[in-house]
Amino acid sequence: MKKADCKFNKSIKSSKGFSLIELLIVVTIIGILAAISVINIFAAKRSANTSSAAAMMRLIHGTQASYSAGVGNGNFATPQGLFSEEYIDGALAAATNPTPTMPSKGGNPAPTQRPKNGYSFNFSNPGPTQYNIVARPTIQAGVGTTGDKAFYIDESGVLRATTTPTDVPDSNSAPLN
């Protein structure tokens, strides 16, 4: 019996560590979990960009109202006017189209055009007492899509949105609550 016990103890001692198959299974599981988390990270980033764009549209509407009531004497401003009078900062001004080309009254240099949180903001002033702004994701399709919706706002202050980033929003788009 002692010989059998010795053989049994030797086999237990020699089975230390993991086999190659066990290690491959663990690595595969970790890879699958990493792939799932990356997809969720992209979705969270898109959602955050979309929320930020909606907030920027409301901010721009507020700055237009302030500009009109103040230095605009009843007229709305272009992005250059809002930036020059420092109603918007350089980061938001850089995301507008047309992008301001002159420095602000406070001495801030003209911004270099670049999106803000994955969105660009296109201004249109059909008349001095009218404006409309369209915010669209800079990348509208694929894995790297920078937003889930496109937005529209005008002097009425009603923020409107599309259901997809590729649709072009206008005054007939569904209003956001």
Write structural notes for this entry.
The chain is α+β, with helices and mostly antiparallel strands and 177 residues long. Helices cover 41% and strands 15% of the residues. It contains four helices and six strands, in the order ααααββββββ. It has helices spanning 2-13, 20-69, 79-84, 90-94, and strands at residues 96-97, 119-127, 130-137, 151-154, 160-161, 174-175. A six-stranded mixed beta sheet has the order 1-2-3-4-5-6. A hairpin with a 5-residue loop joins β4 and β5 (160-161). The N and C termini lie far apart (82 Å).
Task: Count every beta strand, where a strand is a DSSP E run of 2 or more residues.
Answer: 6
Structural class: alpha+beta
N-to-C order of helices and strands: HHHHEEEEEE
Distance between the termini: 82 Å
Number of helices: 4
Low-pLDDT residue intervals, each spanning 5 or more residues: none
Sheet-strand content, in percent, reads: 15-25%
Strand order of the largest sheet: 1-2-3-4-5-6
Helix content: 40-55%
Tell me, what's the shape? Answer: elongated
Any chance you could write out the topology, listing elements then pairs?
Blueprint (H helix, E strand, L loop, with lengths): L1 H12 L6 H50 L9 H6 L5 H5 L1 E2 L21 E9 L2 E8 L13 E4 L5 E2 L12 E2 L2
Parallel strand pairs: 1-2
Antiparallel strand pairs: 2-3, 3-4, 4-5, 5-6
Descriptive tags:
177 residues; alpha+beta; six-stranded mixed β-sheet; 15% strand
Quick structural gist:
The chain has 177 residues and is of the alpha+beta class. The protein has helices at residues 2-13, 20-69, 79-84, 90-94; strands at 96-97, 119-127, 130-137, 151-154, 160-161, 174-175. A six-stranded mixed β-sheet has the order 1-2-3-4-5-6.
